[in-house]
Amino acid sequence: KPELFWNSKTIDLMFLVCWRYILSPKIYKISKLGTFVFHDSLLPKYRGFSPTVWAIINGENYTGVTLFKINKDIDSGEIIDQKKIDISQIDTISEVIDRVTAGYMEILEKNIESLINNTVKKRKQNHAIATYTCKRLPSDNLINWNASSKNIYNLIRAVTKPYSGAYTFFNEKKMIIWEAKLLDEVKNYVGRISGRVVEIIDGEGVVIQTGDGCILLTSVQLGNSNNVKAFKVINKLSITLGI
Predict the structure, then answer these.
(1) How many other β-carbons are positioned within 10 Å of the β-carbon of residue 20?
(2) What CA–CA distance (Å, rounded) separates 137 from 114?
(3) pLDDT digits (tens, 9 = 90+) for 183-212
């Protein structure tokens, strides 16, 4: 608990990792050499909540890691070091998290000596080009089948395990979509109902209509059951997801 540190005189250096709360100056000023934060973006871009998730949702091809000195304004302190982290268009959140975590360690190893010696160089952020992300709620993971195939796919891979997963409804039951794929070739449907099953590919997945095409669902979880291959649950062309 933060209050345990209020009267402490023994903290030389403090780091905040995966920190989601505002820390008062009363606490972070205890550290003799300063308090520093690891943030999952190339600040000043993507200040705020869940930057890695938002980067994938937005279809970015990279994110980053920034180590900065804390101050009273969110994610706006002086930058110590940064590292760019690539995101491929098929990466899931867990794969990107692994790279981000490795980035933490690389930056820490590179800068720890100068931080301890209090000789670390700092540079101010360009606040004029800052961007921000809002806090995500569980309901934000609901799939809108009227959205584009790419947007739906990005949401699915951004919030899959270890997170709670993008979801829809099937016969009024919540269904989590754990895995999906974009299709290389899509039939030109002129009769369209978003969320409707249009093809069942045994051993592979289920093709669902979206707002601008189709997407292949491969792994799902219905209710409290285990996650299974999508074609084992979604097995009729009369099924429309989302209702």
Answers:
(1) 9
(2) 39
(3) 999 999 999 999 999 999 999 999 999 999
